[in-house]
Amino acid sequence: MFYKLGLQTFYGPAFITDLGEIADEMLPYTKQTFERYFVDYTTWKIKPSPVWYEERTDFSKRAVGTNRISHLELHGYKLLQGQDTFSGEFLGGCLESMYKMLSKQKKIDEVEIIERYSIFPSCEQWQGKVMFLETCEDQSAPALVKEMLTTIERTGAFNKLKGVLIGKPQDERYYQEYKEIYLEVFGHYDFPVLYNVNFGHATPRIALPYGAKVLVKANEQTIEFMI
Known about the structure:
single chain, alpha/beta, Glucose Oxidase, domain 1, two-stranded antiparallel sheet, 6 helices
């Protein structure tokens, strides 16, 4: 809704899960993102995090001050198909949320608002965009991920894109299975697809500014802002 009104908003990080991280400090990679948006981020080059973290299972008082379990990042940004360099304006979101908007799995009043005000972008609004997609903490089964992608595909949005950025799966669950599904669904198109980017529900994460024009260089492992 804010994007349709022309307001610059950001896809993450969130107040409770990121600024309210129950370790002694925010995760360094996420903190860098948060602080960067208070200064000039237009010359910033986003790069992969050197580590990723497992999601917490204990949120009790005894967990306060403890660090998340971390792992070395072994994949970095993975170019699944297409040219290694591409550009366009950011537009996208959580795959499960977008699917629910289209499949009408919302409350009746929400469905009415989504339809009345065309909250889901029209086919034309996807023209020239770099779509960003990520899966949520539900860690949806691969078959459901394919169904969700196919539902979005039916809108015709994929025919308009300049490229796709896909977020790292939380806890790296279904990492390979998701990768194969993205290849299967997007393989019918000639745009580039970059996988395993640090945004969304996996930690750590960057914030993606809606509507910002970016230059993606997969071989250099960078995402640059273009003003």
